[in-house]
């Protein structure tokens, strides 16, 4: 008998609770081809951030009143650092007050790569920011251009470097499936984001949303989004390539209103689980194939952390796992992040 031991390096990001402050399109000087932030966040776009700040503060205060630990506030939905000086100053002052009053432990923001500078990063850090999430989307020049992002790949690389050097944590958001992109391009994006020092990634596969420029292209037959099968396979490979760099989110948050506006693309409530399940399946298929070399699988020990998704959404992995000799009754769950396979 021989035993094959493989690491399971992947993990979902665990962190302190986040209370979002959605500022749809705040600071966005152009409208990217695919973007419908007001639908994705379920909030209207406003010039004045005060209502969104008030709503976030109310949620933070509620947590405190319930005896919950202070959360991290998160400015999402637009280009945080591209806002007018008045709006930015309002947000920073409010965030500092939340921290001074013990309502928030720290805060984070998302922004575009072409709206950052060393001075801005210093200013964010001084006001209590601990993480900057960059909407990189892709490092592919053609996809950036066709999506009307308004900057090239080097700008994204530079911005990643600036955040890295600032000492703030760096999140990188990727958007696979844009016009002009391919699964191979997405895999290259994941490799590059990790090589540039991302602390965590987010994958948001491209959707066709009513009212966007992308919807027009799709209606005219000039753009075809990835279907669910392509997206799941590519996302699983993306997870594999990310290795120990956590992927904090897969797919936009499932909102009823957004669902009514999605015209095409891999829109699925369980997209993340499907991708994790596929990663587990492909990893085990490869391990059994390479380790077994025709021998019979006689023992299976798997990390407990994959128990929740190994069998797949609605059991969709069961048949494929049975085909390589892995049935539920054959698996022993272990605490270690290792796959152990015995072959007779
Ligand atoms: S993708 Fe980001 S930068 Fe582009 S319009 Fe939407 S929120 Fe603004």
Q: Describe the sheet with the most strands.
A: 7 strands, parallel
Strand content: 15-25%
Tell me the overall shape.
globular
First-residue to last-residue Cα separation: 5 Å
The CATH superfamily title of the largest domain:
Aldolase class I
CATH architecture annotation name of the largest domain: Alpha-Beta Barrel
**Integer average pLDDT:** 94
Helix content: 25-40%
* Ligands, ions, cofactors: iron/sulfur cluster
Q: Which structural class do you get from the secondary structure elements? A: alpha/beta
CATH topology value of the largest domain: TIM Barrel
How many discrete domains? 2
H-E order = EEHHEHEHEHHEHEEHHEHEHEHEE
Tally of strands: 13
Low-confidence stretches: none
Spatial arrangement of strands, main beta sheet = 2-3-4-5-6-7-9
Taking all Cα atoms into account, the compactness measure Rg is 22 Å
Number of helical runs?
12
Assigned CATH class of the largest domain: Alpha Beta
Structure description:
The chain has 344 residues and is α/β, with parallel strands linked by helices. The protein folds into two domains: 18-268, Aldolase class I (TIM Barrel), CATH 3.20.20.70; 278-343, no CATH class. The protein is 39% helix and 20% strand. The protein has twelve helices and 13 strands. The chain has helices at residues 37-40, 50-65, 85-100, 118-126, 141-146, 153-166, 183-195, 213-219, 228-242, 256-261, 271-292, 318-323, and strands at 2-7, 18-22, 71-76, 104-111, 129-137, 169-174, 200-203, 208-209, 247-250, 262-264, 297-303, 331-334, 338-343. The chain has a seven-stranded parallel sheet. Strands 1-13-11-12 form a four-stranded mixed sheet, with helices on one face. α7 packs parallel to α9 (228-242) and α9 packs across α11 (271-292). The longest helix is centred in the C-terminal third of the chain and has 22 residues, at 271-292. The N and C termini lie close together (5 Å). The mean pLDDT is 94. The chain binds iron/sulfur cluster (SF4). Iron/sulfur cluster is lined by residues 25, 28, 31-32, 35, 37, 78-79, 112, 135.
């Amino acid at each position: 008998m021989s035993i094959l031991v493989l690491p399971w390096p992947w993990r979902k990001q665990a962190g302190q609770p986040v209370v979002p402050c959605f500022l749809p399109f705040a600071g966005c000087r152009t409208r990217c081809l695919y973007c419908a932030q007001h639908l994705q966040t379920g909030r209207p776009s406003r010039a004045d951030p005060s209502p969104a700040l008030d709503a976030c503060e109310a949620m933070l205060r509620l947590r405190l009143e319930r005896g919950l630990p202070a959360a991290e506030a998160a400015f999402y939905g637009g280009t945080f650092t591209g806002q007018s000086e008045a709006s930015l100053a309002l947000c920073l002052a409010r965030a500092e007050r939340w921290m001074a009053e013990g309502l928030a432990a720290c805060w984070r923001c998302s922004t575009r790569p072409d709206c950052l500078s060393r001075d801005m990063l210093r200013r964010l850090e001084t006001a209590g920011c601990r993480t900057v999430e960059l909407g990189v989307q892709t490092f592919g020049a053609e996809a950036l251009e066709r999506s009307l992002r308004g900057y090239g790949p080097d700008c994204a690389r530079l911005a990643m470097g600036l955040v890295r050097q600032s000492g703030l944590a760096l999140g990188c958001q990727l958007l696979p499936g844009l016009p002009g992109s391919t699964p191979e391009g997405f895999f290259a994006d994941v490799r590059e984001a990790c090589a540039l020092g991302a602390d965590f990634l987010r994958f948001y596969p491209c959707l066709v949303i009513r009212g966007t420029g992308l919807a027009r292209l799709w209606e005219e037959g000039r753009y075809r989004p990835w279907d669910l099968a392509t997206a799941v396979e590519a996302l699983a490979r993306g997870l594999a390539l990310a290795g120990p760099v956590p992927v904090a989110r897969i797919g936009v948050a499932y909102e009823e209103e957004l669902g009514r506006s999605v015209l095409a693309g891999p829109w699925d409530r369980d997209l993340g689980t499907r991708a994790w399940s596929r990663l587990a399946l492909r990893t085990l298929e490869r391990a059994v194939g390479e380790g077994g070399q025709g021998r019979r699988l006689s023992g299976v020990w798997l990390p407990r952390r994959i128990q929740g998704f190994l069998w797949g959404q609605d059991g969709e992995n069961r048949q494929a796992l049975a085909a390589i000799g892995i049935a539920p009754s054959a698996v022993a769950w272990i605490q270690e992040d290792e796959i152990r396979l015995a072959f007779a």
